[in-house]
Specification:
The complex is a heterodimer. By secondary structure, chain A is mainly β. Chain A contains 15 helices and 55 strands. Chain A has a 22-stranded antiparallel β-barrel. Chain A has a five-stranded mixed beta sheet with strand order 15-20-21-18-19. The longest helix of chain A is centred in the N-terminal third of the chain and has 14 residues. Chain B is of the alpha+beta class. Classes of the chains: A mainly beta, B alpha+beta. β37 of chain A pairs antiparallel with β1 of chain B.
Chain lengths: 1145, 589
């Protein structure tokens, strides 16, 4: 592979291979679409005229950058000894100018229009040094590699406090003489954090350079293109593959938590296959649908979405948070999430294999009472009702002692069903490589399996996925890319769903057996549901297999006769096929009448069938397709040397279709054949909710035009405007088109002359934006019924039966029985101002943004002002208004001490919204208005302690029938009665206002440690368990409760179901703070020394152990603090432990 | 070649940008019919009318109206305690805000009324073939009947209500005041008359139309509303504390004329000669079958069910109300006050102070009690498999049996029993009326739906309505004749009383005959006997069988109840008052 005859090209290949940012250098940035000569000769031939007298070299370089349309990249140290230069050239080629300017001490590489300055060869370097070489010098040699174990050529190696140094060769080797053992070597290279190493007694050093995440040349994906991070003027946050892959999650959305400032992630459930996080960009900006638009590899609304992409395939995820998202028009108001997958980089084939295996378990299971406590509490209910106690003291003692496990068990239902370690494993194999002039490829295969937390789990998730991203250079002016990706998501569930299983677990009476002492399953809690059975395959199965296929064909044509002009075409075809089979079978439980014994004196159990009389099968096939085609044209040009203009305009068309077909049969005589034909042969007796066969479909279309204008003056003053002219099928024909503009500007303060003397600031940029965006989603939950509100339509109603048995068809005005012919999108007016910079030579970087968003024309219903006598459910109308404002911030610090390098990164986002207009009656009490409060806040009575005694009850207004031990509601209205007047509107809902992350990284020799703490504050969650004579109590409730013997003024008495007013009526006693801090991810890795692994042919090898959600600190305690489920009836969030290897060849 | 490519490229660009025709944006919803299509197609119009029938709902939903009166207790509450304790307020209308009572729910009824108005506005533009004009007329009649039915439920609950006669659109002025009670009654009567004129007497089977409104249904509805209009509550306002708008809740006038109108209306149904009592001479079976047979001659207007339909409009009274020892849900459990009102077979009143009665309270009672109520030791169905061993016979077990000294075995069908105790009733009684004993009720959807119909109007009610008007008009002999048809069918001795005594017996007869058929809630109000009927706690029975075999019956309170006069009419929801500022709240709220 060594090819000394083409040193520049080789360096280029390496550069691209190793660079953190995986610049898609050859597939030129759409925005910076300059024609590029890959050998740099064209650049070096550019003519330059320059007059400088004793000028700062930095200023001279800047001048050249403008005049020759190039960009210099260098470490400031390189030019520190040559600060003033004089130069007079007239129309000379750049190479000549550079030689004059830099002399022999520096050399340079040209990559595109970027010129990387480097130290010259060691000899030259030494000769120009000011300090003499110590004759007693030690020779130190070694190799420099990156984190992937790839040799890094061109690394500057400098003896600290001297100018004595060298650079690594093409294999990453260096050799250098140092004065003594206390010498410190500094290794530095663009794109990497520099590292200092004390020589000590070593003569052979192996150095691993860490990538510098704040590299100046970072490229960020934006709408229909890419931009240099340095020139971005919008509020954009992104996360790269290295961060995404740090937590080996089974769902991509969970890898992003705590990483992206301003994005809120809430994980409501950990059920394998449906464990994704709700994502809110900058909190909640509407009372309607708050979901962001998801764009994968440039295509919006892709089949299958984001969650199930293989995290190992992801190159970056970018979130457009402000008005810069306006380029996505009527779907962009809630932010846009851009997902970019990996592509091949030129170079020799790289094979990577990642595997991790581990187990997961619930982060937290509710603690419930044991049998003696439960029995005692039921007796308390009897006492409060004046009934005799149902359990004698002897009974309770038996529950406590376990002396009669047949009649008086003390069952731990969770323990009986949930295991401690559900296995999961993930494997990915990828190959990438190629050549710049030919084909580049990234190919990957992956598999994932995850087991449910039930013992003998009926819940499983398996996924197989592949991706093939191919880029081919067909001619000088034509590049074609073909992306194919597919996956199979195979979800298996018991026929009783997770909410039923967990409902039975939390209700499970501890004084009933889960299993009889002889090991047979005990009776049901209700409806045949004994969770030890219904969590297993014993009830049949639901097999939900979603096959998703995404494809995209892309062509870039560099218009040969106009420099800076190119055209992009995209045609994306996505399909998904989702067969679902629900085969329900009867199951069997064992009951005992507590009186019958067999001949051996053993209790005689009765086996009986539950659930169904015979198996039944429901089978459906859902198919979706998405076709997106777009074309856009890019042009950029630099006028003179100072003015750069880039233009982009395009059009896009999208058609989304879906249909479902469903069939059902019952009456299977055997479970042996689980196919439709084997069911009841008499079709007329088959029915599932009355439908033997069913089908439905939808069709959604969008068309739009979009564009962008960028203007930059010397990369110091930046202006951008984006726009979209958007149309959607959701709106009536004459008003479906809308125009959505976004403007932003940036001022790179650090480029100003007056900032040149501020040496600790590398870069400082002030930016601001405003945009008008739309939200065209009608429904809060993407329900299809909510579309087409502009027309009066009739859908099928229920059936009515005539002639004794004839089911007649009926039609009825659809969910919104009358049209709103004026319906249109919600309008977001989003403003943002931000400051970002890097300090201390890249050691510190920061970003802070303030935003103020106002949503108008928000889709709400006039429920409060249209009387019910109107006879219709009000349709959505564009009348609501809401504002939302807050800040996002990000602060990074990276440093190294000797071979120890470390980094700290903090990010967070705070947002608070307020309803400005909401339809509510003028008579609403001030403490109840939704207007002026955050959206989605509930009315509740304000709990102010507990009536300790009857005297307390008598002394304060109370709910009719209140007694000691009941919760005291505040008489807010002051009218001496507790009634609906006294409800107050809460200030919080279940979405956190602040969410942030703290990442700590450290590396030492081959070891790396990555720790992520994540915090969320400002959310609350309601607790209302189904407790009483039909379900267990939370231990948290039982402890310290009011009883006759121990009256409490803080905790209420034992309640039964919803019989007590303070259970049936929402009140603040149960609405608890869920603020939490969580050790979201901790990972310790070790990279094996390349000297060892290279002998067995490996390029890199790393092993690691990891845990997700290991520790949580909160005061909520009862359920996982991310829940919004009030009664513990969801599959809980999970904690995982993994061990894995990354191997590269 | 390269030059040619440039041209191709240019052509491709032009083609691409022009290929984006905007027509594809006009997506018709694929899962529904547009408005224009519907009003051009009689079949779709009929489908729209079919949907309106669903607004009738039926009386066998999980919560039954009897549990809001002195018939039963609903053990899952669902807002029923607020009703029976007279705690309703404009902010809390208890069960009436729930979806259980579509037919008694203000919002749902006005949704149906808008459908009626939409139909009325558009039906004349629908192109029917000439020979199909009868079809149009029939549908007009059906809709007029349905409109009258919806309004009669509103009026029975609220008094005078807003009469809405247009299908509102989003831009309409929605402020519409309540009409006086008299005007509402007149409107209902007029709709009934229109319907009666347009509707056929009956439908032949096989035409898919049995179950549609008939002339008999329209005349029955007219008879019912006229009976109500003649009743005390509809003519008095003394209880209302100087209510500012008495015309909304009463229409004082010539009572005799009103009773005569009620009588005539009932007579008009009887004179159709189409209906007769279900009577084969076997009282228990006849009264049971009446509510299970689909084609009884006694049924005037009914809703049918098929077992394949789910909970919402399949009727599952067995699952909802059956004993917990059968894995049923208890639900609407008859209270002792109802049980006590069944006479003995000799026509005398039952009394706990009579030691013979108290020792064997279920012996020798009106056969309709056997057919309506499950009590301790009632023979019922085979037990579910897991319970069978505990009760191979299949009889209702309420009593606690002392099986050994100091060892008590609680009844299987109680809250102390071993099976689904949280679904056990408190009163010691379960509903039998409407429940098909041949159907496996436990575990809904496992073939547990029954197909018994719900009768909105049956001939028995018409006879009672007629008799009540007769008594009020002093025509006791005529009343006796008619009432004794019912007594005979029930296997009970004839009435011989007159005057007030006859009225007392009539009222008890109506209570027993029409139990759980959604009449008692209204009857105790229109007779203004609710203060007595509701101002007493709901009782149940505790039965103990000692080791000696001695059985004792003890009544115990299972539900607090109270009456307040505001409960004669429901409060209009406060939010609705806010939305429509012309509304006037009912008295005493």
């Amino acid at each position: 592979m060594k090819n000394k005859s083409k040193p520049i090209r080789n360096a280029l290949l390496f550069f691209m291979k190793v660079t953190l940012i995986n610049l898609l250098i050859t597939s030129v940035s759409v925005m910076m679409a300059y024609a590029i000569d890959t050998n740099g000769q064209e650049v070096l031939d550019r003519k330059v005229t320059l007059h400088a007298e004793n000028a700062e070299i930095k200023a001279v370089l800047s001048e050249i950058e403008r005049k020759a349309d190039v960009k210099f990249t260098y470490r400031p140290r390189l030019i520190q000894n040559r600060e003033r230069v004089s130069l007079n050239v007239e129309d000379e080629v750049l190479s000549s100018v550079l030689n004059q300017l830099l002399g022999s001490g520096l050399r340079y590489d040209v990559i595109g229009k970027q010129i990387v300055l480097k130290s010259a060869e060691p000899a030259a370097m030494a000769s120009m040094g000011t300090s003499a070489v110590n004759p007693l010098a030690i020779t130190v040699s070694g190799t420099v590699k990156d984190e992937q174990g790839i040799a890094v050529p061109g690394v500057n190696v400098l003896v600290k406090s001297t100018t004595n140094g060298t650079t690594t060769d093409v294999d990453g080797h260096f050799s250098l003489e140092v004065p003594d053992e206390s010498s410190i070597l500094i290794f530095s290279f663009i794109g990497y954090t520099s590292q200092e190493v004390t020589v000590g007694g070593q003569t052979n050093l192996n150095i691993t350079l860490a990538q510098d995440v704040q590299s100046l040349q970072e490229i960020v994906v934006v709408g229909y293109g890419e931009q240099k991070k340095t020139t971005i003027t919008g509020a954009v946050t992104s996360v790269k593959s290295d961060v995404i892959s740090q937590a080996p999650v089974t769902n991509l959305s969970n890898a992003l938590v705590g990483r992206l400032p301003g994005a809120v992630f809430i994980n409501r459930s950990g059920q394998p296959g449906s464990d994704g996080s709700e994502i809110r960009v900058r909190g909640t900006n509407t009372s309607g649908n708050p979901n962001a638009l998801i764009v994968i590899d440039g295509i919006a609304n892709r089949s299958g979405g984001l969650e199930r992409l293989n995290p190992a395939d992801i190159e970056s995820i970018t979130i457009l948070k402000d008005g810069s998202a306006a380029i996505y028009g009527a779907q962009a108001a809630n932010g846009v999430i851009l997902v970019t997958t990996k592509r091949g980089q030129a170079g020799k084939p790289q094979i990577n294999f990642n595997y991790n295996i581990g187990f997961n378990k619930p982060t937290r299971l509710p603690e419930v009472t044991d049998a003696p406590t439960y029995a005692t509490m039921l007796n308390e209910i009897d006492e409060y009702r004046g009934n005799p106690a149902r359990y004698s003291a002897a009974d309770i003692e038996k529950y406590r002692s376990g002396s009669d496990v047949w009649t008086h068990p003390d069952t731990d239902w969770y323990g009986a069903v949930i295991k401690d370690n559900a296995m999961q494993d993930v494997a990915t194999l990828s190959v990438s490589g190629g050549t710049n002039d030919g084909v580049k490829y990234y190919l990957s295969l992956g598999s994932l399996s995850e087991n449910g937390v039930y013992k003998n789990s009926g819940t499983k998730y398996k996924q197989y996925n592949f991706r093939s991203n191919i880029d081919a250079k067909i001619t000088d002016w034509l590049n074609i890319s073909v992306d194919l990706a597919g996956r199979q998501e195979d979800r298996t569930y018991p026929t009783r769903d997770a909410s039923t299983i967990f409902r039975m677990l939390i209700r499970g009476k501890p004084n009933l057996p889960a299993y009889w002492p002889n090991g047979l399953p005990g009776p049901d809690i209700e409806n045949g549901d004994n969770p030890v059975v219904i969590s297993t395959p014993a009830t049949g199965y639901v097999d939900d297999v979603n096959n998703v296929f995404n494809s995209n064909l892309r062509a870039r044509i560099d218009i040969p006769w106009v420099k800076g002009l190119n055209v992009m075409f995209n045609a994306a075809f996505d399909e998904s096929f989702r067969p679902i089979k629900r085969f329900r079978t009867p199951w069997y439980l064992y009951t005992w009448d507590y009186t019958s014994y067999d001949d051996n004196g053993e209790p005689e159990l009765l086996r009986s069938q539950r659930g169904l009389s015979a198996p039944e099968l429901q089978q459906e096939l859902e198919r979706t397709s998405a076709q997106t085609t777009n074309a856009y044209i890019n042009y950029s040009h630099t006028f003179g040397t100072d003015h750069t203009l880039a233009l982009m305009a395009g059009t896009e068309k999208q058609v989304l279709k879906g249909n479902v077909f469903m069939g059902f049969r019952n009456g299977y005589i055997s479970t042996a054949v689980d196919e439709l034909f084997a069911g009841n042969q008499n079709a007329s007796t088959n029915a599932w909710n009355g439908n033997l066969l069913d089908g439905k479909l939808y069709n959604r279309t969008r068309l739009n035009y979009f564009g962008r204008i960028n203007y930059a003056f010397r990369e110091k003053y930046l202006v951008e405007m984006v726009w979209r002219y958007d149309a959607s099928y959701i709106f009536p024909e004459d008003s479906r088109w809308g125009f959505f503009p976004g403007v932003s500007a940036g001022w790179v303060v650090s480029e100003e002359n007056f900032m040149q003397s501020v040496s600790f600031i590398d870069r400082l940029k002030l930016r601001g934006s405003w945009g008008q965006l739309g939200n065209d989603r009608m429904s809060a939950r993407n329900v299809y019924d909510d579309e087409f509100q502009f027309a009066n339509n009739f859908g099928f109603g229920g059936n009515y039966i005539f002639d004794y048995t004839t089911l007649t068809t009926s039609i009825t005005p659809t969910a919104f029985p009358i049209a709103n012919p004026n319906i249109t999108w919600e309008v977001a007016n989003n403003s943002n101002i931000g400051l970002e910079g890097t300090l201390l030579q890249g050691k510190v970087s920061f970003e802070v943004d303030y935003f103020s968003n106002k949503r108008s024309q928000m889709l709400i219903t006039r429920n409060a002002s249209i009387p019910k006598t109107a006879g219709f459910t009000p349709p959505k109308e564009n009348i609501g208004e809401l504002k939302n404002h807050g800040i996002d911030f990000l602060l990074n610090f990276n440093n190294s001490v000797g071979t120890f390098n470390y980094g700290i990164s903090v990010n967070g986002g705070y947002s608070k919204n307020e309803m400005i207009f909401y339809d509510e009656p003028a008579t609403t009490f001030p403490w109840q208005t939704q207007t002026g409060r955050p959206n989605d806040t509930r009315l509740m009575y304000k709990a102010i302690g507990v009536f300790e005694t009857q005297a307390d009850v008598d002394a304060y207004p109370h709910w009719s029938g209140a007694r000691p031990g009941d919760i005291r509601f505040e008489d807010v209205s002051g009218d001496g009665e507790i009634d609906a007047d006294d409800k107050i509107r809460m200030e919080n809902n279940t979405i956190p206002r602040f969410q942030g992350g703290l990442t700590l990284t450290a590396g030492w020799k081959g070891f790396d440690l990555n720790i992520l703490f994540q915090a969320a504050t400002g959310a609350r969650s309601y607790i209302r368990t189904q407790s009483g004579d039909f379900g267990n109590y939370l231990q948290d409730f039982a402890d310290g409760r009011w009883t006759t013997e121990n009256p409490s003024s803080e905790k209420p008495r034992t309640f039964n179901r919803e019989d007590e007013y303070w259970i049936s009526q929402d009140n603040s006693y149960w609405f608890r703070n869920t603020d939490y801090v969580r050790l979201k991810n901790i990972q310790l890795g070790y990279t094996l020394p390349s000297a060892i692994i290279s002998k067995i042919g490996m390029r890199t090898a790393r092993v690691y152990v990891n845990s997700i959600n290991l520790i949580t600190w909160d005061s909520f305690k009862v359920f996982d603090p991310e829940t919004d489920n009030q009664d513990g009836t969801v599959y809980p969030q999970k904690m995982t432990f993994n061990a894995g290897v990354n191997i590269g060849f | 070649m390269k030059k040619l490519l440039k041209y191709y490229l240019g052509i491709a660009l032009v083609l691409y940008s022009t290929s984006c025709s905007q027509d594809f944006l006009n997506v018709d919803p694929e899962d529904r019919f547009s408005e224009d299509v519907v009003w051009k197609d009689p079949a779709l119009v009929e489908a729209f009318v079919n949907e309106m029938y669903r607004g009738l709902n039926h009386g066998m939903r999980e919560l039954m109206l009897g549990s809001l009166a002195d018939e039963s207790q609903f053990i899952h509450n669902y807002g029923s305690s607020q009703v029976v304790q007279s705690n309703l307020t404009p902010a809390d209308v208890g069960s009436f805000s729930r979806g259980d009572f579509d037919e008694f729910n203000w919002t749902q009824l006005y949704i149906r009324i808008r459908q009626v108005n939409l139909f009325k506005e558009r039906i004349d533009e629908v192109p029917f073939n000439e020979q199909d004009e009868l079809w149009r007329a029939r549908m007009k009649g059906e809709v007029a009947f349905l409109n009258a039915y919806f309004y009669h439920n509103l009026v029975r609950l609220y008094g005078g209500v807003p009469l809405v006669r247009q299908a509102y659109e989003l831009t309409s002025d929605f402020q519409v005041a309540r009409s006086p009670l008299a005007e509402c009654v007149a409107f209902i009567v007029a709709e009934c008359d229109e319907a009666a004129a347009l509707l056929p007497l009956s439908y032949g089977s096989g035409g898919g139309d049995i179950g549609r409104a008939t002339r008999g249904a329209a005349l029955s509805l007219k008879a019912r509303i006229l009976l109500y209009a003649a009743s005390d509550l509809y003519n008095e306002t003394g209880y209302a504390g100087g209510f500012s708008n008495p015309e909304l809740i009463a229409a004082p006038g010539d009572r005799t004329a009103k009773w005569q109108a009620a009588k005539d209306a009932a007579k008009a149904v009887m004179d159709l000669g189409l209906y007769s009592l279900q009577n084969t001479g076997n009282p228990v079976k006849d009264y049971t079958d009446l509510f299970l047979l689909k084609d009884s001659k006694e049924a005037i207007f009914s809703r049918y069910f098929v077992k394949s339909r789910g909970w919402e409009d399949g009727a599952l009274p067995g699952l909802a109300n059956g004993p917990n020892g059968y894995h049923n849900w208890g639900g609407n459990t008859p209270i002792q006050e109802l049980v006590d009102d069944y006479e003995l077979t000799d026509g005398t009143k039952f009394s706990w102070s009579n030691p013979v009665h108290a020792a064997a309270p279920y012996a020798n009672r009106d056969p309709r009690m056997t057919a309506s109520i499950l009590h301790d030791q009632s023979l019922w169905r085979p037990r579910p498999a897991d319970v069978k061993e505990m009760d191979p016979v299949g009889k209702v077990l309420i009593r606690t049996v002392e099986t050994a000294p100091g060892v008590f075995l609680p009844g299987l069908d109680t809250r102390d029993g071993p099976v689904e105790d949280w679904n056990g009733g408190y009163s010691g009684y379960y509903l039998r009326k409407f429940v098909d004993p041949t159907v496996v009720h436990e575990y809904a959807a496992a073939g547990g739906n029954q197909e018994a119909p719900w009768h909105f109007f049956r001939y028995g009610e018409i006879l009672l309505n007629y008799a009540e008007a007769c008594i009020e008009l002093g025509q006791d002999a005529e009343a006796q004749t008619v009432l004794n048809q019912l007594r005979a069918r029930a296997g009970m001795p004839a009435f011989t009383e007159t005057g007030a005594a006859l009225m007392d017996r009539y009222r008890n007869e109506r209570r027993v005959e029409l139990v759980f058929e959604q009449h008692r809630y209204f009857d105790i109000r229109r007779w203004m006997i609710a203060p007595a009927a509701m101002n007493r706690p709901g009782n149940g029975i505790v039965i103990n069988q000692a080791l000696s075999g001695t059985v004792t019956y003890t009544r115990n309170k299972v539900q607090d109840r109270a009456w307040a006069d505001k409960m004669y009419w429901l409060p209009i929801d406060q939010q609705e008052m806010n939305r429509n500022t012309t509304l006037i709240q009912n008295p005493l709220y």
